[in-house]
Design brief:
heterodimer, A: 337 residues, mainly alpha, two-stranded antiparallel ribbon, 4 strands, B: two-stranded antiparallel ribbon, Cytochrome ubiquinol oxidase subunit I (chain B), cell membrane (chain B), Cyt-d_ubiquinol_oxidase_su_1 (chain B), iron (chain B)
Chain lengths: 337, 475
């Protein structure tokens, strides 16, 4: 067999999860930023920038879940058992965030604050626990005979809690730079002012994680700091530094689109860094992706669809973004007319 | 004991979250197709009434869709959180089916939903109609895959069990398993019926309040034609589905009929029980009240045919007949009322009183939720009826459950109950508020010509549901 099916599936799922992080990242970020946008019209505009696309963005998370179940059922069952509590809290957060889009515009004036709070609380909770899940997953989940052997609260540890907080900063930065791109005037100026400290927070988070993971795990230290890996992987931190400097400069120069693109770039690098640390373990610390893979009949069948359909999905997603391109402005009213 | 409590909690939690979930996709499937018809009629006839109805229902669709998305997201993870051993065992089959659902349906719906709901002034009429059609097709594709997966768990085939897990050997056999065509037809038609009842009840509500407008008449008339055409069709499909169940899951059918068997066959056939209380301990159905031979006629299509009784199965392989017997009767009873509603509507239409008969209008109004209740009752019948198996004949539900402590499950179940009641309660209230407001004349009249991306107006804030209500609920 020439095709390494588990590897291809790991790449597809990795791609799906990255799409999720980048795309739902900015809509969750807008919810996290809502407390800093007190004005009702600004809140309307901020929400309207993502209203037509948030649902598609969230679908990448469903693809991640379905892809894991299809290609790596062991990972799906162990991760979802081990991280049951933070995942449930994440889902509840996503419920509140998701319904807020429709309910907020439907609510009577005096009810609206409920859905504003749902949007803020839901976005914050979902993001924080996503970060916790990420941190706990990277830290490793002990498995014996196909079952999780850790305790239900193992995720309640400093590193996952830190990654939870770090992801809140990261999504807020994605959200603020998205709004710089999609809005103008006072709201945009507010976002520029918020982006600077958030960029610092992201840099600090990346550095802390980059130091913390190798210190915790000698295998990760060896992955990065042994020769010749050091040479191969050194572009990652260098590109992070360059991207970050460029982000601050783009902000100073009042660029509209560049801050968002550079934030996407930084997030992508951080994601690649974690992938390099974990490779080839799909269930750290012990189980690699070939051990966890579904039968080849399952992988092959689903792969045909994935390889044909994902490019089509990307094409029409791009089309949807194209239809709703440009700045969103306040003050107009009336949908459909 | 602690383990069986955890199992019960896991089942209750799954049952609770999926019961809430199924309501929204059912209406989504029906309304999406209804919106295609409305927009198609608008483009074809250019009668503004259809455009007004399109806008009216698309707002309700938007709220409903949002609730379907968030409650469905939970479902995508419940398989692993609550049934981890099932996922490990059968993920090789159910995983790819779910992945295909995401790839071919969810993305399609989500990608074009934005254009459908917010793009009226941003794309041309043709492209907008195309988006509506794509969303509707997406909902049907979604039903296809998820019902293929569910049906495979009911009537599995096309696989081998190797090293303690399912390995698919023939995907066509997996997808087109014996119960799939019936379940797909039954559920899709149920979604159309439930939506038609909802639309019909909404129109009846306005007509009863004297809002006798052409758009509302059209809504009512269309819904009643659906009842006439589709409710009897559903009875036929249900009958075929029952025959299929007799062939592949006889214990379920025995439970549905409250039939214990064990007595010698005296050639009197099977009665149809109208009432009774199946008692799992005593192995009998108390207070059974039945019509002689009608059961044989219905389930075997013969005068004296008989079916295996529950006593023909070991006690540990029997579903809870008390629940299944009654949930099945609720579904069938509501189905018969739907057929009656269709028949009465024909009568009143013929007498020229379709829009003025208070009796018919009130009947249509109270039947508003009947489709959804029937869907839930039907799913309880088929899902509780296939117990104790999660994959029929292969894996027991008790072997599938994740190793969570009951405290964890009780806590998360409690959270789900509180959150769902609050969130979906509010959502349904908003939907009903939109219904109460009724269609608005001349909404969306400014649609002009142009290609994709041509903005026809200063850009507007984008929410599908722009209505704001003041305190007395009128916009």
């Amino acid at each position: 067999m020439g095709i390494d099916l588990p590897l291809l599936w790991a790449l597809i799922i990795g791609f799906g999860v990255m799409m999720y992080v980048l795309m739902d990242g900015f809509d969750l970020g807008i919810g996290i930023l809502y407390p800093f946008i007190p004005d009702k019209h600004h809140r309307d505009v901020a929400m309207n920038t993502v209203a037509p696309v948030w649902d598609g963005n969230e679908t990448w998370l469903v693809l991640g879940g379905a892809g894991l179940l299809a290609a790596f059922p062991l990972v799906y069952s162990v991760v979802l058992t081990a991280l049951y509590i933070p995942l449930m809290l994440m889902l509840l957060g996503l419920i509140f965030r998701g319904i807020a889009f429709e309910f907020r515009f439907k609510a009577r004036e005096r009810e609206r604050h409920i859905w504003d709070k749902a949007f803020i609380g839901g976005s914050f909770t979902a993001t924080f626990f996503q970060g916790v899940v990420l941190g706990a997953y990277v830290s490793g989940l002990p498995v014996r005979d196909g079952a999780y052997t850790g305790a239900p609260l193992d995720w309640l540890a400093p590193f996952p809690l830190f990654t939870g907080a770090a992801l809140v900063c990261a999504y807020a930065l994605l959200g603020s730079t998205w709004l710089i791109m999609k809005t103008e005037g006072a709201l945009q100026a507010r976002m520029v002012a918020l982006t600077r400290p958030l960029a610092w927070a992201l840099l600090a988070s990346i550095m802390v994680v980059s130091l913390w993971t190798p210190l915790r795990d000698p295998a990760i230290a060896a992955r990065w700091f042994s020769f010749p890996n050091l040479l191969w992987f050194s572009p990652v931190p260098l590109l992070v530094a360059a991207g970050w400097v460029a982000l601050l400069r783009a902000l100073r120069r009042g660029r509209q689109v560049a801050p968002f693109v550079l934030t996407l770039f930084l997030m992508g690098l951080g994601y690649a860094g974690l992938a390099i640390s974990g490779w080839p373990h799909i269930l750290p610390p012990d189980i690699d992706l070939w051990q966890a893979a579904a039968p080849p009949q399952s992988l092959g069948f689903a792969l045909v669809g994935a390889l044909f359909i994902i490019p089509i999905i990307l094409a029409y997603t791009a089309f949807a973004y194209y239809v709703f391109r440009g700045k969103v402005r306040p003050g107009d009213s009336g949908y459909h007319s | 004991m602690a383990e069986s409590l955890a199992l019960d909690l896991a089942r209750i939690q799954f049952g609770f979250t999926i019961s809430f979930h199924i309501i929204f996709p059912a209406i989504t499937i029906g309304l999406a197709s209804y919106l295609v018809v409305l927009e198609g009629l608008w483009l074809y006839t250019r009668r503004t009434l259809y455009r007004d109805l399109y806008h009216f229902w698309s707002k309700i669709f938007a709220v409903n869709f949002g609730m379907g998305v968030v409650s469905g997201l939970v479902m995508a993870y419940q398989f692993g959180t609550n049934w981890s051993f099932f996922s490990e065992f059968a993920g090789g089959v159910t995983g790819p089916l779910l992945a295909y659902e995401v790839l071919t349906a969810f993305f399609l719906e989500a990608g074009f939903l934005g254009v459908m709901l917010f793009g009226w002034n941003r794309v041309g009429p043709g492209l907008h109609f195309f988006s509506t059609v794509v969303v509707a097709v997406g909902t049907l594709i979604s039903a296809f895959w998820i019902l293929a997966s569910n049906s495979w768990m009911q009537t599995p085939q096309g696989f081998q069990v190797i090293d303690g897990r399912v390995v698919p050997t023939d995907w066509l056999a997996v997808i087109f398993n014996p119960s799939f065509p019936y379940r797909l037809a039954h559920m899709t038609v149920a979604a159309f019926l439930a939506t038609a009842l909802f639309v019909g009840a909404s129109a009846a509500w306005h007509l009863l309040r004297g809002r006798d407008q052409p758009a509302i008449r059209t809504m009512f008339s269309m819904a009643m034609w659906m009842m006439v055409a589709v409710a009897p069709l559903q009875a036929l499909i249900g009958d075929l589905h029952g025959l299929n169940t007799l062939q592949h899951q006889p214990a379920k059918l025995a439970a549905m009929e409250g039939h214990w068997g064990g007595e010698p066959d005296r050639g009197q056939g099977l009665p149809l029980l109208l009432f009774g209380w199946p008692d799992m301990e005593a192995e009998t159905t108390h207070w059974a009240l039945g019509v002689p031979r009608l059961g044989s006629l219905i389930v075997t299509h013969s005068w004296d045919g008989t079916i295996p009784g529950l006593k023909d199965f070991p006690a540990e392989d029997r579903p809870n007949a008390a629940v299944v017997f009654w949930s099945f009767r609720v579904m069938v009873g509501l189905g018969l009322l739907m057929i009656l509603l269709g028949a009465l509507s024909v009568l009143q239409r013929w007498r020229g009183r379709l829009y003025h008969s208070p009796g018919l209008l009130r009947f249509a109004l109270v039947m508003g939720p009947a489709g959804l209740v029937a869907i839930l009752a039907g799913w309880y019948t088929t899902e509780i009826g296939r117990q104790p198996w999660v994959v029929y004949g292969l894996m027991r539900t008790s072997e599938a459950v994740s190793p969570h402590a009951s405290g964890t499950l009780a806590l998360s179940l409690g959270l789900f109950v509180v959150v769902y009641l609050f969130v979906f309660g509010a959502g349904v209230a908003y939907m009903l508020r939109l219904v109460r407001k009724g269609p608005v004349t001349d909404e969306g009249r400014e649609q002009g010509d142009g290609g994709p991306g041509h903005q026809r107006h200063a850009m507007r804030p984008l929410s599908a549901v722009r209505e704001t209500f003041d305190d007395d609920g009128r916009a």
